[in-house]
Amino acid sequence: MSVWFVPYRKVGTRIIINLFDLHMDRKYWGDPDNFRPERFLESNGTVRKDEALLPFGQGKRSCLGESLARSNLFITFTSLLQNFALRLPEGVPRPSTEPEGGLTFTTKPFSIVMKPRNV
């Protein structure tokens, strides 16, 4: 039997989860640098709930705009994918998953070709 010891913390101590490291942890994701949508879906196609995925935080301090953000992202990306085929320019390597550091992490700039679909 393993025992987990929780050390004493003064009341009011803030504990901050490093979400970047959690979301890039090979223990949970295997190959976090590769985009594999199936890791987020159940076999019947519904979205899988995973305790290691916390893009909007958790608990009392979670993002108030989560439902608005999810709806907006769904509509935006669905519209993009319905109307355009997205590809990398020829001869250009895949974008890096390494973030640009700073106050917050951002992606490094990259180019993409958006070809209109014949709808």
TrEMBL record:
Keyword entries, A-Z: Heme, Iron, Metal-binding, Monooxygenase, Oxidoreductase
Keyword Heme attached: yes
Single GO term (MF): heme binding
Requisite cofactors: heme
Protein name: Cytochrome P450
Species of origin: Timema monikensis
Record: residues binding heme: 63
Organism classification: Eukaryota, Metazoa, Ecdysozoa, Arthropoda, Hexapoda
UniProt family annotation: Belongs to the cytochrome P450 family.
Any one biological process term the GO annotation gives: hormone biosynthetic process
InterPro entries named among the record's database cross-references: Cyt_P450, Cyt_P450_CS, Cyt_P450_E_grp-I, Cyt_P450_sf
UniProt cross-references to Gene3D superfamilies, sorted A to Z: Cytochrome P450 (1.10.630.10)
